[in-house]
Design goal:
Blueprint lengths: L1 H26 L2 H14 L1 H25 L4 H5 L1 H54 L11 H19 L1 H11 L2 H20 L1 H15 L2 H42 L5 H11 L5 H17 L2 H27 L7 H49 L1
Helix pairs in contact: 3-5, 3-8, 5-6, 10-11, 10-13, 10-14, 11-12, 12-13
């Protein structure tokens, strides 16, 4: 027994020394380590994308399969899994194709039209500012013309460079590098199909591996938290997508009634930005109000501002709680922290997944505090 204890102590100290040496070496070549991690992730990108597709389609495939198994027709009962997969993938790719063929051309046309009309907007805004800043005007103490001119020149030159045909083609070529991207997408789809077809076998293999390495108590613990984490992500992602579609539809209808130009583009933009908590609504709303002020008049801009405020209040207090439910109950301060960290570390995807990730962390911390309190009360009693 003493020998075993000594061996364990030696192993512990050797592990500690090895970890210290590793941390010391990594601290001198952080960029190299990050490049290595990036290369590792790049190699397994098809599996990562395939797992993401599997996660998104698991619930609808499972529900459709259960319904087909209860069908009166033997054909549907026997082929429930294959039919459910075909239907779900067909709907999934139809949505993606619809977005690519309908939304992207409209967005490109709207952005190009907006850039073309930007000089007229600037001239109109300059005239209004000149009226307000002249002697006796509301803003006579402020000289805003020079600042506005410098901001306009910088923004307009940047938009022109981004929207030029050469740059657009460069972006398309880099995003659609034919061989690697297409092969990765095909590989990811194949991986996701295999995962969905063999989901029971894969889950059984994972359970057997966990059974061999951890105890039953830890197994139940991991299974419970895996289900709760998946429920949080499902609720948020599907709910956020449906909520964005509803907000986009309401905004398109409202902005069309106000006769704003490119109301479809602006409405879709507000819906997409609504995926970003707090900041998305503020940024998109301010942009729409600015467009209303430049293209119409102050009264239309005020009406649009009131309409956006009403829609956002309706969405925040009625639509979102009904769709997403209470499973993602994260406090505002934690949401801001999650968005800051997620956006800084992982960009757009970090912002999109920051709220459900923070909800999972909050769930784990809350359960840990409850466990410690129960243990403390038990010890005191």
């Amino acid at each position: 027994m003493k020998d075993k204890g000594a061996v364990k102590r030696w192993l512990w100290w050797l592990s500690l020394i090895a970890a210290a040496i590793l941390i010391y070496r990594v601290s001198f070549d952080v960029s190299g380590v990050l490049r290595g991690i990036g290369s590792f992730i790049s190699i397994f990108t098809p599996f990562i994308i395939g797992f993401a597709i599997t996660f998104l389609l698991y619930a609808p495939c499972n529900r459709l399969e259960l319904r087909l198994k209860r069908s009166r027709l033997a054909f549907f009962r026997k082929g429930a899994r294959g039919i459910s997969l075909v239907v779900c993938y067909a709907v999934f790719f139809a949505i993606i194709a619809g977005l690519l063929t309908l939304l992207l051309p409209a967005l490109y046309s709207g952005i190009s039209s907006f850039i073309t009309s930007l000089p007229d907007y600037y001239a109109d805004l300059s005239a209004r500012l000149a009226e307000l800043t002249k002697e006796g005007g509301f803003l006579s103490r402020f000289d805003l013309s020079d600042n506005l001119k410098s901001i306009y020149d910088s923004a307009y030159s940047m938009l022109l460079s981004l929207a030029s045909t050469e740059n657009m083609l460069t972006v398309v070529r880099s995003a659609m590098s034919v061989t690697s991207t297409v092969l990765r997408i095909i590989m990811a789809v194949i991986v996701s199909i295999y995962m969905l077809l063999q989901r029971e076998a894969l889950l059984s293999a994972i359970k057997r591996l966990l059974d061999a390495t951890i105890g039953n108590k830890a197994m139940r613990f991991l299974t419970d938290y895996a289900h709760r984490t998946a429920a949080i992500f499902y609720s948020y992602l599907y709910g956020a997508a449906v909520d964005a579609c509803i907000v986009a539809t309401l905004m398109v209808v409202g902005l069309s009634l106000f006769r704003l130009p490119r109301s479809v583009l602006l409405g879709c933009f507000v819906g997409i930005m609504n995926l970003i908590p707090y900041f998305g609504a503020i940024i998109s709303g301010a942009l729409v109000i600015l467009v209303a002020l430049l293209t119409k008049n102050i009264y239309t801009a005020i009406g649009v501002a009131v309409y956006i405020l009403v829609i956002q209040q309706l969405d925040g207090n009625i639509i979102q709680p009904k769709i997403i439910g209470q499973s993602v109950g994260v406090r505002p301060i934690y949401v801001l922290l999650a968005i800051t960290l997620g956006g800084g570390l992982f960009g757009f995807w970090g912002i999109l997944l920051s709220v459900p990730s923070m909800a999972v962390i909050q769930m784990l911390v809350g359960d840990f505090i409850d466990y410690r309190n129960r243990k403390k009360m038990k010890n005191e009693s």
